Amino acid sequence: VTATITLRLLETNDLDRYRRLRLEAVRAEPTAFGSSYETEIAARADKYRDRLTGSAENYVLGAFTDDQLAGMVGFVRETAPRRAHVASVWGLYVAPRWRGGGIGRTLLAGVIERARALPGLEHVLITVVSNNPAARKLYESLGFTVWGIEPAALKVDGVDYDDIHLLLHLHPPAR
Ligand SMILES: CC(C)(COP(=O)(O)OP(=O)(O)OC[C@H]1O[C@@H](n2cnc3c(N)ncnc32)[C@H](O)[C@@H]1OP(=O)(O)O)[C@@H](O)C(=O)NCCC(=O)NCCS
After folding, report:
1. Dihedral of CA 42/77/149/92: which sign?
2. Which tens digit of pLDDT belongs to each residue from 95-152?
3. Are the C-beta atoms of residues 152 and 160 closer than 8 Å to each other?
4. Is the entire prediction scored with pTM above 0.85?
5. CA-based nearest residue to 5, from 114, 153, 109
6. How many angstroms separate the CA atoms of 81 and 90, rounded?
7. Closest of 27, 30, 114, 129 to residue 73, by C-alpha
8. Which residues line ligand 1 (CB under 6 A)?
9. Residue 33 burial (CB < 10 Å; 0-12/13-18/19+)?
10. Ligand 1 pocket check: which of 7, 35, 94 to mutate, most ligand atoms within 8 Å of Cβ?
């Protein structure tokens, strides 16, 4: 499916559709995320509202096709002074009917472009569960490299999954 994709930071107004898509994500992909449906459905509205402040350092970026929220990805920069050069990307999700059309890649590229514009930010972390080669391939194709693996990082219905940790240098030295 090809459609025009518009990216924009989600705001408080988007709370309902954001929550709907987030709950769909954690329910449909129980092993793809650190969080679970049970955790997210129980979360207070404030937790969701706090993610949608539209701040350049802590946001959820939405991908819209025809006014529909088709996909999203979270970004958060660390706040402690000694950690402020580091940010993390989390919760990448594209609704099933829109997959394979470049939305996931566009969302991540959008996050990377915005990250490069933040003074003092040096690298971005992302974690992918070992049973998700499609997502890992996407991250590596955008320049992320694996720096470590946490064995049995997640236990879902009694089954262990490893976390693969990747990092992207935003300003690699020219060679
Ligand atoms: C992973 C995900 C976000 C990709 O979104 P998408 O919009 O389908 O991805 P794109 O169309 O932009 O594809 C980007 C790249 O991902 C990889 N990819 C996507 N789907 C794939 C598949 N079914 N098999 C293998 N690789 C795949 C390819 O490398 C692709 O690059 P290419 O187009 O040059 O071949 C989406 O499949 C998804 O939401 N999955 C469930 C949730 C999830 O796993 N999130 C990631 C958690 S870390």
Report:
1. positive
2. 999 999 999 999 999 999 999 999 999 999 999 999 999 999 999 999 999 999 999 9
3. yes
4. yes
5. 109
6. 21
7. 114
8. 29, 32, 92-94, 99-105, 128, 132, 134-135, 137-138, 141
9. buried
10. 94
